[in-house]
Amino acid sequence: MSFLERSVIIKKPLEEVFQIATDFTKSPKIMDAVVEVKPLTDGPVRKGYQFREVREIRGRKAASTIEITDFEQNKSYTASSEQNGLDLRYHYTFVETTEGTKVEFVGELFTKGIRNKLAQPLIKKIIKKEDENHLHLLKEFIEQESDSGNY
Fold first, then answer.
1. Which of 106, 113, 93 is nearest to 132 (CA)?
2. C-alpha R_g of the chain
3. What gap in Å lies between CA 142 and CA 85, rounded to an integer?
4. Which of 57, 108, 111, 120 is the least crowded, having the fewest Cβ atoms under 10 Å away?
């Protein structure tokens, strides 16, 4: 069930936007809460690719393993993470437009266990606070860094 949806137009070509959006090692430069990203899979990003992400949330570090569970080059991908009875899936779609690249995002959360089911509204609120503006931050990063040549 989706609980977070956003879209943004990035004034750059589709291939450039997709390449930067799927270079997860850039996440600490884009999002303040992400403090470390370590690839766990060799080679290019593809279905089955995994990386470890460390975030600092409310003064505490939390690590998770994220897997790309769906991938279509320059079109879409899904990043999934499951731990402690929480199954989080982020779906991204990329479409070239006359203005640049439209990136659409849908976040889904599935819970296991009564405790997580009861806490689901609070969990969604925390996740929204952390990630609701990440597409805007990606847009700023790509447009500013691309113009200055500082990827």
1. 106
2. 15
3. 34
4. 57
pTM of the model as a whole: 0.91
Q: Mind listing the pLDDT tens digit for each residue in 28-49? A: 999 989 999 999 999 999 999 9
Written as one letter, the residue type at 23 is D
Give the neighbor-by-neighbor strand order of the sheet with 34-39.
2-10, 100-111, 86-97, 76-83, 60-72, 50-57, 34-39
Taking alpha carbons only, the member of 94, 93, 95, 65 closest to residue 80 is 65
DSSP symbol at 23: -
Question: DSSP readout, 124-136?
Answer: HHHHHHHHTTHHH
- Say how far apart CA 70 and CA 92 lie, in whole Å: 10
Token pair in block for residue 35: 């403090």
Check: CB of residue 6 under 8 Å from CB of residue 132: yes
